[in-house]
Amino acid sequence: MNNLYTNYFTASDISTLWDTYESDTIIKYGMKHFLQHVEDPDIQNILQETLQLIERNIHHMEELFKKANFHIPKGFTDEDINLNAPRLFSDTLYLEYIFNMTFFMLDTYSLALSVADHKDVNDYYAKNLKAAISLNKQAKELEKEKAIYIRSPRIPHSETITFVEDKNYMTGWLGERRPLLGIEVTNLVFHSKRNALGHAMITGFSQVAQSNEVKKFFQKGRDISGKHLEVFTSILHEDFLSDGALLRTSEVTDSTTAPFSDRLMVTFVANLIASSIGQYSVSMSRSPRHDLSVQYARLMAEVGKYANEGMKILIRHGWLEQPPMAANRNDLVE
Predict the structure, then answer these.
(1) How many CB atoms lie within 10 A of CB 228?
(2) Could you count the other beta carbons within 10 Å of the beta carbon of residue 97?
(3) What superfamily would CATH give domain 176-316?
(4) Which of 118, 138, 240, 282 is the most exposed place for a label (fewest CB within 10 A)?
(5) pLDDT in tens, 3-33
(6) Which CATH number fits domain 7-145: 3.90.226.10, 1.10.287.3510, 1.20.1260.10, 3.40.50.300?
(7) What is the pLDDT of residue 122?
(8) What is the per-residue pLDDT across 153-194, written as a single tens digit (0 to 9) for each?
């Protein structure tokens, strides 16, 4: 029995490794292109460290796939990058991307660690989680040094213990709204930053996409992320709190030459959407005010519909690699 549990790779092991491999190969080629143009030596160092980390991870995952007797996914390759393409984003946006990328890594690795069955997979994600924590801290401190880090607004420091008595605690549409809770402010700021970054990157992708269909897809995503940023910022303004983030479109160059394939860019946006839906749902569960829950539900529905459009594009063009799946028992008996 012990030998079975030691050597058998389960659905949880294979599927998390497969998802991580796909996303890490996107990061790998993003770092490679960024390093062709970066000028700031501090940002260059963190880009190089990130690339080295991701390449080690990819190699380790390939060894785990071989051990599991499972084919190594194609992921993304040299076919998906044009190293001769001009710069599309500024150094500042490179750093902001790395910082936000660590949020995705922390979410992905912690979830994968919690569901891993095989010891080698468990050890792999435990090691990765430690590395992602270190990279997150390094990127945050570098943003502070470069004066581009936006802090969350201040709230009063309570000196006494109190309990909720006002029945308006959960109201939002009718009656007087209570001020935002600290956790609600935190989530609104977080989503503002994510949408500001998404708006800038999708704006760049819309300039360089080769297919008109993909261009229109990115243009729609640019408008959605811009609208979501306005929603979160306006809620903060109701309590006279500062903006959660600023538009970073000025960090996008005027290049119209694609550094990445349409397949890579659409997949990147699809991953961004999936992460947003998950984060919105968590924020909705932690926001007792009814109006905020309704806003999150509405925004989730909008990005969910947009995600569906992206999946249709990937499937229609033959760009969506088949993820690991259970056996089709009906086919096996025919």
Answers:
(1) 23
(2) 21
(3) Ferritin, core subunit, four-helix bundle (1.20.1260.10)
(4) 240
(5) 555 578 999 999 999 999 999 999 999 999 9
(6) 1.20.1260.10
(7) 96
(8) 888 888 888 888 777 777 765 567 888 999 999 999 999 999
Rounded to a whole number of angstroms, the CA Rg of the chain reads 21
Cβ-Cβ contacts under 8 Å for 235 (sequence gap 6 or more): 180, 188, 292, 295
Which amino acid is it at 268? F
Residue with tokens 């924590």: 133
Residue 24 backbone dihedrals phi, psi, to 5 degrees: -70, -30
**Same fold yes or no, 7-145 and 176-316:** yes
Assigned token pair, 114: 């919690």
Q: Where are the alpha helices (DSSP H) in the chain?
A: 2-7, 11-37, 41-67, 91-115, 119-145, 182-208, 212-238, 262-285, 290-316, 329-332
Delimit the domains of the chain by residue range: 7-145, 176-316
Record the tokens describing residue 62, joined without a space: 């390939």
Q: What is the DSSP letter of 147?
A: T
Contacts of 28 (CB under 8 A, 6+ apart): 51, 54, 55, 58, 76
pLDDT for 6 equals 57
Whether the CB-CB separation of 313 and 221 falls below 8 Å is answered with no
